[in-house]
Amino acid sequence: MSVFIIVLDIFLLLVFIRICDKYHTKYRAISLMLIIVIAIMMGGNTANPDIYVYKYTYIHGRNSVEVLYTWIIELSKMIGLSFEEFRLEIYCVSIVLIFYAAAKHMRNVIPFIILYFIFPMMFDSVQTRNFMAMAIMLNAIPLLVNRDRPHIIKYIILTVLAAGFQLASLFYMVFLLIPIIQKSKNIRRFTIVILGMCIVFSLNRSTLSAALTYVSSVLGTLETRISQYGTILTQWGFLYSWLVHFIIFGISYLLKRYIISDSADGENDYAVPIIQFCYWISVISIIYFPFYVVGSFFDRLYRTVLVISYMFWLSAIQGSTLQAQPTHQNNYGKLIVDKRVLQVGLIIVGFATYMFFRHINAQYHETIVSTFFHNNWILNKIVG
């Protein structure tokens, strides 16, 4: 293992300690242990459906508009990293970014890590670029809760950076509409009408197909993959993705209803803006429905929405502040003990568990689940 890897891992450990100190994170040792386990399991995996393509592009290079990923590959090769070392460090850095995003919103990060471990972590162990982009977006999306111009500008910059790893991240620009929607009832009504039309448009396959043909003819020269999505590839499988979105919406709505109804006395003031924003994420994400009809590639959109919802849901349930201040006098808010909210928490755990067994284990047991636990170069070195 190169000196660069050792130095980078020590630096990431120091960053982890700094994050814990700044945001007064509880159960640090357990959190660190879980992060290390996830980094080893994801970064050390040597056999999954996409890894050979990633290895080929690492060795032979790639020509894509996702320039940040290309630049990191070239830099890593200049340093002398093998593909396995490159992949491990990509996951280590991304996991620390995810932990940083979660630690800003909740003192106990362990429930978030466990939910992510259940679902969709194993998908992200396969789709490396999407995982890197998601790590950036988890830090970007909460910026919009504040609604002010500096945070909106930061959000745009971070989204463009995420698109440098996964072009589909540009779809998250639609969340810029949420601060505008929240300000006006008329705009909210108009948005709901547009989203309803979006669902109707999705079900009209001939109209959707014509629109796809036009878009691919215009933009296909910019990125070859765009032309690949110029035809509809699903039959009725898209209804599953729609169902997942509606469940995310339902959970967000229940938490919004219960928490806001209890906010008159000020006990849940910190949780209210978080869960309101999370609710509107689940609403505006209906705009993705036509893309789920196109193909399963776009399922990564609802996975990112689900992970950011995990973070907002748990932050609201814990009653933590929107952004903890690094002072001893900081008030994180009381733990919400409303029985209805805790019941929603159990629904969230059940939902994540269902997603693992239905969407990963049932469909990808041999290609993802089995290889995740049995093909790992780090564990092989430790054991062997």
Would you tell me the overall average pLDDT?
84
| Shape verdict | globular
Rg over alpha carbons: 21 Å
Strand content: under 5%
The number of distinct helices, counting runs of at least 4 residues, comes to 19
What is the count of structural domains? 1
The main sheet comes to: none
**Structural category:** mainly alpha
Short description:
With 384 residues, this protein is mainly α. It is built from 19 helices and no strands.
Overview of this protein structure:
Helix content is 72%, strand content 0%. The chain is mainly α. The chain has one domain. Helix 2 runs antiparallel to helix 5, helix 5 runs parallel beside helix 8 and helix 8 packs across helix 17. It starts with a helix and ends with a helix.
Any descriptors?
384 residues; mainly alpha; 19 helices; 72% helix; 0% strand
SSE blueprint and pairings:
Elements: H1 3-23, H2 28-43, H3 51-60, H4 67-79, H5 83-103, H6 110-118, H7 121-124, H8 128-140, H9 149-163, H10 177-183, H11 185-203, H12 205-219, H13 224-228, H14 238-261, H15 271-284, H16 289-294, H17 299-318, H18 339-374, H19 377-383
Helix pairs in contact: 1-5, 2-5, 2-6, 5-8, 6-17, 8-9, 8-17, 10-11, 10-15, 14-15, 14-17, 14-18, 15-17, 17-18
